[in-house]
Write a structure and sequence with these properties.
There is one protein chain. With 140 residues, this protein is mainly alpha-helical. 44% of the residues lie in helices and 9% in strands. The protein is built from 3 helices and 2 strands, in the order H-H-H-E-E. Strands 1-2 form a two-stranded antiparallel ribbon. The chain is elongated and about 145 Å long. The protein starts with a helix and ends in a 32-residue tail after the last strand. One of its GO terms (biological process) is chromatin remodeling. It holds the Pfam family PAPA-1. This is INO80 complex subunit B-like conserved region domain-containing protein. It comes from Coptis chinensis.
């Protein structure tokens, strides 16, 4: 009867004690995996950096990176405000007509001027009523 691979492996394991490899200077060191070392170095570096950042934050010192980010954010905000201001000012000789669900808006540039319908007139009351001349009139 033939043996299975598992049975042969178990049998050869029992016989292996007689054919062991001997190392006179002990076992050779396992080769270090460079990827694991690189990860450990990166983790240590990140930990040091976060610790230093926390210390700077506690002491109130901003890092150069933070200053650059603030400067860029400030510049972006200024550009956005400038752009928004320019969006409301119309070029000369222009009429802007905007139709939205909330209503229609018509905007005139300064040099076009408003149509006479929009010109503001001082508010005046109607002239007083005339007095009646009839004998049965109750108006004074």
């Amino acid at each position: 009867m033939s043996l299975t691979r598992r049975q042969r492996a178990l049998q050869s394991g029992k016989d292996a004690s007689t054919s062991l490899i001997e190392f006179p200077n002990g076992l050779p060191p396992a080769p270090p995996t460079k990827a694991a070392q690189k990860r450990r170095v990166q983790v240590a570096k990140a930990a040091k950096e976060s610790e230093a950042e926390a210390i700077r934050k506690i002491l109130g010192q901003d890092s150069n990176r933070k200053k650059r980010e603030d400067k860029l954010k400030k510049r972006r905000d200024e550009l956005a405000q400038e752009k928004a201001a320019n969006a409301w000012t119309l070029p000369p000789n222009t009429i802007r007509w905007v139709i939205r669900p909330t209503g229609t808006v018509v905007t005139f540039s300064e040099d076009v001027g408003l149509p006479s319908i929009f010109s503001s007139k001082p508010c005046s009351y109607p002239p007083p009523c005339e007095k009646c001349a009839g004998s049965s009139c109750t108006n004074p």
